[in-house]
From TrEMBL:
One Pfam family of this chain: FMN_red
Alphabetized GO MF terms: FMN binding; oxidoreductase activity
InterPro entries noted in UniProt: Flavoprotein-like_sf, FMN_Rdtase-like_dom, NAD(P)H-dep_reductase
SUPFAM superfamilies: Flavoproteins
Entry superkingdom: Bacteria
Segments forming domain NADPH-dependent FMN reductase-like: 4-147
One GO cellular component term noted in the UniProt record for this chain: cytosol
Descriptive protein name: NAD(P)H-dependent FMN reductase
Amino acid sequence: MTKPRIGVIISSTRDTRFADKPTGWLMDKVKDHPELEFELIDLRDQNLPFFNEPASNLWMPSSDPDAVAWQEKLAGFDGFVFVVAEYNRSITGALKNALDQAYKEWNRKPFGALAYGSLGGARALEHLRLIGIELQMVPLRNAVHIAAGDFFKVSPLGANAPMSEIEGNLEGSLKSMLDELTWWAKTLQGARA
């Protein structure tokens, strides 16, 4: 069996997004992971229209070529890590639209998260977990949350310090999430084979 492939999806598309900083830290931490292979997926680069199909691709093929290309991209992954920005107590509109553009390609795949915001993106991540259940995904219990003092220490809204100044607070939860993601990705990869 090949190493499970994990897509790391940046959920914010704003020009001034904070996501690039924690995503860079995450990708550096997972680049030499012994059991998983990670690939960055930036929603800015996907050219996804607003969902406008007669039905989900569970029921009929999508007609928009950009949606089909997105579905084909997702199909090649065995799991996901979402970089979750919390906007108004939920996920971004760009992420919700990206989730809605596919269905079968999300099924039976685990996902973790690196969430951020004043409350660590916890409310947005809870919404994402509910959506993931409907998409027949496996939301992981463990996640990395950048919250409160840590968030304002590394955010441009605060001190804009490097991620290295808070990574000691994040590494335990990152290890727990990656251990859980590895187990589920391998287990479900074998079940889908």
